[in-house]
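A reminder from the course coordinator: this example appears on the midterm review sheet, so study it carefully.

Given structure:
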């Protein structure tokens, strides 16, 4: 049963884990049924980046959802790069890892 206020909920779920883009799309389908958006936003630069404050978020999702989540992402990322549609953040992170 949905909560009475769920019809008004316009939240965005931010998936920061490094996952397969298909997993992100599956999560988005579930969230959509509840009126919520999803973005994928894995980070680059690991533990050192977290300690030094130099993490970068590679983000996929709709522009509207990315902009809604941007203030939160900027709390822990020095840069927020919107790479494209949902799943693009995961692909960007994979490419970054391959280059290292």
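Designed residues:
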């Amino acid at each position: 049963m949905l909560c009475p206020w769920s019809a008004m909920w316009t939240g965005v779920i931010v998936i920061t884990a490094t996952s397969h883009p298909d997993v992100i799309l599956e999560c988005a389908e579930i969230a959509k049924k509840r009126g919520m958006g999803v973005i994928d936003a894995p980070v680059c630069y690991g533990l050192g980046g977290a300690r030094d404050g130099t993490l970068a978020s590679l983000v996929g999702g709709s522009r509207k959802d990315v902009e809604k989540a941007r203030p939160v992402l900027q709390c822990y990322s020095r840069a927020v790069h919107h790479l494209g549609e949902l799943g693009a953040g995961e692909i960007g992170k994979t490419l970054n890892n391959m280059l290292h």
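The mean pLDDT is 91. The chain has four helices and five strands.
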